[in-house]
Amino acid sequence: MTMEKGSSNNHQQQSFEVSNIATADSKFFDDDGRLKRSGNKWTASAHIITAVIGSGVLSLAWAIAQLGWIAGPSMMLLFAFIIYYTSTLLSVGYRTGDQLNGKRNYTYTQAVRAYLGGYKVKLCGIIQYVNLFGVAIGYTIAASISMMAIKRSNCFHSSGGKNPCHMNGNLYMISFGIVQILFSQIPNFDQLWWLSSLAAAMSFTYSTIGLGLGVGKVIENKGFKGSLTGITVGTVTQTQKIWRSFQALGNIAFAYSYSLILIEIQDTIKSPPSESKTMNQATLISNIITTFFYMLCGCFGYAAFGDSSPGNLLTGFGFYNPFWLLDIANAAIVIHLVGAFQVFCQPIYSAVEKTAAKRFPDNDFINKEIEIPIPGIVSPLKINLFRLVWRSFFVIVTTIISMLLPFFNDVVGLIGAFAFWPLTVYFPVEIYIVQKRIPKWSTKWICLHILSVACLMISLAAGIGSVAGIVTDLGVYKPFHAMY
């Protein structure tokens, strides 16, 4: 994935300081001395679409099944509008002061520091990194589910449908973790471009297959399934209906959110016109395209399966023909999540390693690169012991937690709920108020805070629903013994 949700263009932080050259020749350099940016509304739109369309799309049919034909699509449209609007608020935070000539803020945290400062900077950082950590867990679970789906599909067909093919998911999570330990030794985000690009292609592959299979299932059923109010009480209890409806909001929020990387995408845009103006156009274009695609996937998935829509759309088609197409889709998910995991975790890796190097500048364990010559390759392999130990430990911890909580929908809903209000609404609203100097208690000030409080309520409801789902699942689950 070129820029998956929560990614960080660390290479931009390492650009050469060439402000003296920029003064002499502004044809090649921008006002901050960095190489001239060339992005426009179309490239920015592409970044957003690539970042947003990921594994979250697989849970949308389930989310609509909890809410029904009326509330489900309505909530998807509402989230699309909120995220579009708050993105336009956040875009003004790219520059401090004047939108054409003000000082640039290269990351979300820098924008928060420039406009809000104080404890809010640390709060933003904590929320960012906890969210990235949660996504790593969610992706480990999702990857294992897809690997098992491939194995079970082949088992089912080889036995002629006689073997239920139950299996333990832990082996697949461990396998995914081993692969991530290897890829985590790639030093920084710059060197992941090939893995990121491959992941982007895979996300569109499995999303399109899911949509196509949903359409085919509707045609096979000769009609749409589902109801106006979603899954009925009786199929689930009244309490479960409420919790699941709340959890569905978190799943939708997870599928749409990209605020975490908006400022970094904006930092690729050329000016004039102002970056915020171009970014707002890109946000509108990408939101329309993403919402249209999501509505198709979510609605056709619900129409195909009705109230029994699965938490992961691609696992709901069972092991029926064309099983080879489902195998391709699930393989695409695994490949995508291998890259997406790295894109989300590199900012965490970088933050810890830079902090350690700054605190212990003379420590060889932390700072020394060991070069290992490889026959036939010009450049030797460079290994840093601290990077090897710390990143391996991080992957092991995420893998263990995934094995303890292998509940895809619950985890995705919790991540979406946790990040939605602070990162998508609260900080953008506060930055906009400071940047535009909106008077306290003015009509616009009050309206913005009403929006913020309303979205806080949505986040809390989604979080409570997801936690309730996890607690319910844990009641019948034996740790490390999950069978599928």
TrEMBL record:
The keyword Membrane applies. It is a multi-pass membrane protein. Keywords: Amino-acid transport, Auxin signaling pathway, Cell membrane, Membrane, Symport, Transmembrane, Transmembrane helix, Transport. Its main location: membrane. The keyword Disulfide bond does not apply. The chain crosses the membrane at residues 44-64, 76-94, 126-150, 192-215, 284-303, 323-344, 388-408, 414-434, 446-471. Residues 39-471 form the Amino acid transporter transmembrane domain. One of its GO terms (biological process) is amino acid transport. One of its GO terms (molecular function) is symporter activity. InterPro entries: AA_transpt_TM (IPR013057). It holds the Pfam family Aa_trans. It is found in: Cell membrane; Endomembrane system. GO terms for cellular component: endomembrane system; plasma membrane. Carrier protein involved in proton-driven auxin influx. Mediates the formation of auxin gradient from developing leaves (site of auxin biosynthesis) to tips by contributing to the loading of auxin in vascular tissues and facilitating acropetal (base to tip) auxin transport within inner tissues of the root apex, and basipetal (tip to base) auxin transport within outer tissues of the root apex. May be involved in lateral roots and nodules formation. PANTHER family: OS05G0424000 PROTEIN-RELATED. Belongs to the amino acid/polyamine transporter 2 family. Amino acid/auxin permease (AAAP) (TC 2.A.18.2) subfamily. Belongs to the amino acid/polyamine transporter 2 family. Amino acid/auxin permease (AAAP) (TC 2.A.18.1) subfamily. This is Amino acid permease 2. It comes from Pisum sativum.
